[in-house]
Amino acid sequence: MIDLSNLGIHEAHDLLQNGEVTCRELVTFYLDRIKKLDGEIKSILTLCEESSLEIADKVDAKIASGQEIGLLEGMPYTAKDMFLTKGTRTTAASKILGNFIPPYTATAISHLNKSGAILLAKVNQDEFAHGGSTENSAFQKTTNPLNKDFVPGGSSGGSAAAVAADFGIFSLGTDTGGSIRQPAAYCGVTGLKPSYGLVSRYGVIAMASSFDCVGPIARSARDTEIVLHAIAGVDANDSTTVSYQQLTGKRSLELKNIRIGLDSNFVNHTSILEAKKTFETSGHKISSIELPDGDLSLAAYYVLVPSEISSNLERYDGIRYGQVSDKAKDLMDTYSMTRDEFMGMEVKRRILTGTYALSAGYYNAYYKKAMQVRTVVIDKFNEIFKNCDVVITPTTVGPAFRAGDKADPIEMYKTDILTVSVNLAGLPAVSIPAGVDAGTGLPLSLQIIGKLGDDNKVIALAKEFQSLTNWHKLDSKEVKS
Ligand code: GLN
Predict the structure, then answer these.
(1) What is the pLDDT, as a whole number, of residue 171?
(2) Residue 414: what are its φ and ψ, rounded to 5°?
(3) Atom of ligand 1 nearest to the CA of 175
(4) Which of 110, 115, 137, 155 is catalytic?
(5) In the chain, which stretches have pLDDT less than 50?
(6) What atom of ligand 1 comes closest to residue 179's alpha carbon?
(7) For residues 119 and 83, what is the distance between their CA atoms, to the nearest angstrom?
(8) Active site residue 282
């Protein structure tokens, strides 16, 4: 019996193509694991059992007839419940969309469908992606598969937990202020936030449209690269998309003598010491830089993002989508009672703060000021990238925290301090495991940030790091059952 645990894309592909394992066996392996372990991990919202097995049989028939299959063909994966999937319930982990069946499919998912990947399940997240622990889901609290007393991070916590628990080979997440990188860091897996505009947002439930990015979470940087190439590209349905070529121009991908910027605030972090050691042996140069101020970035983020949220979430009015309060007697009641009943506290808090920041009389003091800070952050990064190819930081200030520890929303917001500036500037960044916290035994991670369009460079550097270290080789057998 072949051991199917912890497979990467290439390994799974070879097993399938060489007839050592059937696609049905592979899908069944993950479905069985989910059934056995997800009762405690709680990462799955909707299981797509029937359709997964149906596609698997088609892949098997193709292989049996002697045909070559594509690299992603037959690859079981999961997707955050922010991605619309035609005919399959999509909730954004909110009660207001609790019974919503989308009439169309997100572009990123369509790309994966076309390459033959198999959607195993829609996974949990913070409601509308507002949060950093997946405790804000209206349905269930996902636990960290490495230790169930700790959070998996958020908001793509279901995605990171599903990859760490070996419920599929990769997962799709979204990142508005860190939601791919941070849960990847807490669960010991690799998370890639592409440059803004590289992957279409069409069919992705909108949080803050000038920040939202779609990207993969997987067990290695190599796998995130494969998925990125499958989902990236210009989409007529999202006018902010750009082609990789357009973004990158003729930049060289030489991985020699890379200039790595490091802020002196982080020199003693475990993941940074590990990165320094590894990258210096490869001949790269570390130089001192000063990152944009974290507190200012956080403040600007938590004005701009709620502002965009307040506008994007207007559409959930009890009329066009999902649930309607049956207590409502007139139109105004329908709006207010539906929202009151079916939206969670954090979502309401953000709609209120955003509406306030955009209101006449406060607009200049809050929204406009925050936009100015956003420009300062972009300028600061542009300055840094004149002398550096990439910048490294820890992804998070520490390992995953205990469930319930950040009940105060401000404490939760502060956990985003190392990720939000990247979104303010639209840059690509990857989070990779790079050490273990002595106290909790949980993973610590390294964030590699590149300039706009340098997605390939951050991925290449992450791959190099993973070829020289073993931190990413998480063994799903460690997952507590
Ligand atoms: N934790 C951040 C927030 O709550 C980021 C969320 C995200 O990237 N979706 O806004």
Answers:
(1) 98
(2) -65, -20
(3) 8
(4) 155
(5) 480-481
(6) 8
(7) 11
(8) no
How many domains would you assign to the chain? 1
Residue 354 C-alpha to ligand 1 middle, in angstroms?
A: 15
- In this structure, is residue 3 part of a structural domain? no
Cα 456 to ligand 1 centroid, rounded to whole Å: 24
- Whether 155 is a known active-site residue: answer yes
Pocket test for ligand 1, best of 81, 130, 350 (most atoms within 8 A of CB): 130
Ligand 1: distance of its center to the CA of 67 in Å? 43
The pair of structure tokens assigned to 423 is 């979104």
**Rounded Cα distance, 465 and 277, in Å:** 10
- Residue 476 has what pLDDT? 56
468 in a structural domain: yes
The token pair that represents 362 in the structure block = 């406060």
Give residues (CB < 6 A) around ligand 1. Answer: 129-132, 155, 174-179, 207, 305, 416
pLDDT of residue 321: 81
Q: Tell me what pLDDT residue 1 has.
A: 79
Q: What is the pLDDT of residue 229?
A: 95
Residues 481 and 479: their CA atoms lie apart, in Å, by: 6
155 Cα–ligand 1 center, Å: 6
Q: Domain range holding 16?
A: 9-256+428-478
| Structure tokens belonging to residue 274 | 């590990």
Q: What is the pLDDT of residue 475?
A: 64
Distance CA 173, CA 186 (A): 15
Catalytic residue among 42, 43, 80, 297: 80
CATH classification of the domain holding 26:
3.90.1300.10
In a domain, 277, yes or no: no
Question: Does the residue 378 lie in any domain?
Answer: no
Does 239 participate in catalysis according to the annotation?
no
Calculate how far, in angstroms, residue 179's C-alpha sits from the geometric centre of ligand 1. Answer: 5
